[in-house]
User: Which sequence fits this backbone?
């Protein structure tokens, strides 16, 4: 694949085709666990790792998978990878594993992972498939962290307050008190309705940014067209004079 194709994969994964922001896939875990930034980071990393390994596995085996059994094969590969990730988190991050609970095994049912295996990894070479999984996973992770961070800040007035459940006791130093100690919090932000409201604001912000970028692109193309027309008129005038 060309350098431009790799750049397109990166842009698609992080922004234009973000699995949660654009495709609206994986919303169940996204809305359920993002009451703080660390929970979002933990689930995001687990999903990213699963996406990368699953894409790589499907890409390697794509020439030997019969069309009739491709979906069961994808599910088997994804389930195996999720089991490995689940066991690793249970061994090395037991507190975070307890907090995330059932949502780690439920990564198997995340439509974004199956969709990337079917639409991309099954048709592309290994390196491109790994990059696609990395960028799609990173786009999903960033949204989890941003939404979780916003809800934590508004709901509790803190950021990374429970980093120790993921990184150990030393991570307590990462706790940021955004508002003063007298801040009583905003309960709605950390309740399930707060997840829907927060995601709605993020989607609205993305649409506004996309609209602005589209206008900028249209204005640039219009300016280039005017310059091209002016150049054509000048050349035509010179030719007529000759």
Assistant:
């Amino acid at each position: 694949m060309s350098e431009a194709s790799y750049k397109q994969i990166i842009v698609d994964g992080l922004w234009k085709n973000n699995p949660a922001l654009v495709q609206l896939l994986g919303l169940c875990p996204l809305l359920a666990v993002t009451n703080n930034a660390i929970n979002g980071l933990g689930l995001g990393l687990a999903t990213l790792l699963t996406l990368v390994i699953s894409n790589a596995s499907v890409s390697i085996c794509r020439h030997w998978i019969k069309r009739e059994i491709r979906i069961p094969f994808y599910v088997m590969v994804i389930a195996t990878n999720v089991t490995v990730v689940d066991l690793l988190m249970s061994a090395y991050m037991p507190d975070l594993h307890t907090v995330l609970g059932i949502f780690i095994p439920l990564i198997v049912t995340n439509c974004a992972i199956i969709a990337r295996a079917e639409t991309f990894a099954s048709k592309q070479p290994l390196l491109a498939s790994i990059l696609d999984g990395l960028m799609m996973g990173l786009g999903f992770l960033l949204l989890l962290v941003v939404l979780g961070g916003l809800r934590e800040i508004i709901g509790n007035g803190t950021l990374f307050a429970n980093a120790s459940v993921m990184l150990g006791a030393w991570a307590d130093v990462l706790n940021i008190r955004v508002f003063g100690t007298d801040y009583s919090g905003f309960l709605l932000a950390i309740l399930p309705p707060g997840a829907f409201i927060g995601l709605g604001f993020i989607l609205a912000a993305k649409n506004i940014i996309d609209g602005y970028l589209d206008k900028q692109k249209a204005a640039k193309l219009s300016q280039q067209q005017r310059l091209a027309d002016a150049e054509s008129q000048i050349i035509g005038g010179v030719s007529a004079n000759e």
Summary: The chain has a mean pLDDT of 89. The longest strand covers residues 158-159.
